[in-house]
Amino acid sequence: MKFKTPYLIILLAVLLLPGSSNAGNGLTVPSQMAPTVEHPGYTRIADNFFVFYDPSTAMTVPYKNTGMTRLEMEKQILLKSNASLPELGWQAGLYPHWKNVMWLPSSPETFHPYYRLQNYNNENYGAALEELPVVSTGPPMLQFALMKLEYLLGLPGRTDVFLFSNGEDSRVKEVEEPEPLAQARKLAANYDVCFIIISSATSDNAKKLLQDIASVNNCSQVIDFDTVADNPEFLFGRLYLGGELRNVLFDFDKYYIKKEYRGILDQLGHYLVNHPQEHTVLSGFTDNRGSEAYNISLSEHRAESVRKYLQNKFKINPNRILLHWYGYANPIASNDTEEGRQLNRRVTITISRKK
Known about the structure:
This protein is an alpha/beta fold. It has 2 domains: about 200 residues, 3-Layer(aba) Sandwich (Rossmann fold), CATH 3.40.50; about 110 residues, CATH 3.30.1330.60. About 35% of the residues lie in helices and about 20% in strands. The strands form 3 sheets. Strands 4-3-2-5-6-7 form a 6-stranded mixed β-sheet, sandwiched between helices. A 4-stranded mixed β-sheet has the order 9-12-10-11.
């Protein structure tokens, strides 16, 4: 792929800039963690979130038989997911991977955001989503999105980054740009960040790259584009818990389904069979004994064990049984007692109707 000289100059200007802290990049960064806004029935899991929208040529292909391009569907996913998101006091931002213009950390227009980092407001964020382009702005630039993140992270608390990508980065050989996986590893090592990658990758190499990026820490994951297209509200559902149906509890360091919870799961299975337009979200948790990395993996196994039970017994499409896992985050009881730890070793079941 050939690039004109002005493009190379832009890249060089970006790459030769010295690193800077968030305080000097033209952004308003809160000095304290955003307070959780009281919203009955809901609990915030992440403290901040960013969406990186991919408006590249790779997304302008037709999407199935919807009459839309993949880029148009990407916008619809975000609009529908935002419509179901309560206001729980997040700091949030909305950015493209890149635009065909210069971006500089010291500029007030640093990242050409659609929604500059600020307190999340559902109506305003929705208005920003409406402004997202559905015409391509250029080739895939995954590395630019990850480069930008270095100037955005550092907020108090955990930050979830929703990153749409097909696993291509279109780096320029003449310019020494950071390789996406190396940049993701750097960010994961220095910040409390989780990558939620919405993958539209088609080649084995692209799929492997996205899986490798999601493996830089234990809280990141790859979600298939089709999954969130079918269940848009699932995407931002990772940010909070709400509308719980029931908790399935587990023994210490175990993830097998105990007999006493099979009746609950059978009720859920029959419900899903009889309501084919609805799906369930299974959120795994642990108590606080052991390392964070181990507990995040254990919470994933617990959620997966419930899904396998439902799939094996009721033959439910796996796209209707969606998973989140959080380790020992968000305890519902004290971890200082055995009774409290037992309640925290759980999978929370949520029923969600398609929008």
